[in-house]
Amino acid sequence: MGSETTRLALEARAGDRSAFEGLVRRCVSLVYGIAWDRTRNPHDAEDVAQEVFLEAHQSIARLQDPERVRGWIAGIACHRAIDLIRRKRPAERLDQVAEPADPGGEMPDGRPIANEASEAIRGVIDALPPILRDVVKLRYQQELPYKSIAQALGISVSLVGERLFRAREILEDRLGSLQR
Q1: What total number of domains does the chain contain?
Q2: Measured at the alpha carbon of residue 70, what is the angle toward residues 104 and 79, in degrees to the nearest 5?
């Protein structure tokens, strides 16, 4: 997170509308990515993103640490996506859920992954227990630092590290068995 994001958060907290709009532009892919990961539906992800930025706008004056604004917004996105899933769950049947579009994939270092490999890796990540999957996706797909992940998930920084370690062990084991 750069000082520009912090500056925008400070100015938005003071009531500057254009600063908040700049903050939205800087965080929209983060929020949409989290919403997509949770909902696997582009319309739901857009709805979640709108809710997130509305809530952020209404509560930014209470933001205590502007340097952690991305983690704060990521936390709102996680909660709003879960809320949407809970609201929709009773109304949906499995045969009514649309197949998600393929958003593509890349390695943590930014290199593209071949479609088959990308699909296999996404499948293995999606099969992780939710407490591990969330940490992996926030770290490697959203590129959040440990502190922001901890804030977004309401856990300690050391627990973020422990969960990432456990997730890497599982991923190495499962991906290794796919290659055999």
Answers
A1: 2
A2: 80
